[in-house]
Amino acid sequence: MTFPNGFLWGAATAPHQVEGNNTSSDWWLREHGQLPSPHPVESPSGDAADSYHRYPVDMRLLADAGLTSYRFGIEWARIEPEEGFVSRAQLDHYRRMIDTALALGLTPMVTLHHFTNPAWLARDGDWRNPAVVDRFARFVETALPILSDVDLVCTINEPNMVAIMANSSEAFPHVGLPAGDPVVTENLIAGHKQAVDILRGAGKLAGWSVATQAYQPEPGAEQAADDYGYSREDVFMDAARGDDWIGIQAYTRTRIGADGPITIPDAAERTLTGWEYYPGAIEFGIRRSWERNGGVPIYVTENGIATADDARRIDYTTGALEGILSAIADGIDVRGYLHWSALDNYEWGSYTPTFGLIGWDSETFERHPKPSLAWLGGVARAGAL
Ligand code: BGC
Question: What pLDDT, in 10s, does the model give residues 225-242?
Answer without folding.
Answer: 999 999 999 999 999 999
